[in-house]
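[scheduler] slot 2 assigned
[scheduler] job type: sequence-to-structure, two independent chains
[scheduler] chain ordering preserved from manifest
[runner] begin chain α
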Amino acid sequence: MKKIKFKINQHQLKVWIACLELGWREPSNEAPAIVRMVFHALSKLMHKLMLEDIMSKAEYSFSIDSVEGLAFIAHMQGYGTYLVSETDATIINGIIGIIDSKTK
């Protein structure tokens, strides 16, 4: 599986986590398999991001699986507007751009 490397600061990490938390929806047992798959990939991503956040550093360097990244993009495409400020939406768009460019 392809890895996507990130080098982000503490604020960017916190915005990414907050964006996931604000849009978190656990699917029902009857949800289509694709919805449940995205949820499991997002759960794995969230766990990874929260583990990074525990270290409380100025800058973070880590990688995520391409499936986790693409699940994040798919999740965010479900929103007309993000549930964060315009400034933070710029950060989310930057993260999406990195994932998108590295998974083509």
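[runner] end chain α
[runner] begin chain β
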Amino acid sequence: MSDGRPLLLFLFHGPGADPRVLAAEGIETRPAASLAAVPGGDRPAVLLLDEALARAEADLPRALADLPEGVAVVAADAAADALARGSERVLL
């Protein structure tokens, strides 16, 4: 973060999310056009999996399995939750 506050977490989100709503101290929001665009890193990361990101993947279970271990995945809506059903990577 450029304002001197410590960066605690990366929050990756789809194009439909409003970064102003997601913003919080110590969290840097980053848009992701696909699950492949979510890198591993030296900080914990959370991916808000929305319907648009889930539907953009031809093989969602494989794309979720291929995410770096340090990325926690949270379904952002009921549609994403339904599409990811059965995946051990989605926490909520």
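[runner] end chain β
[qc] chain β: The chain has four helices and four strands.
[scheduler] slot 2 released
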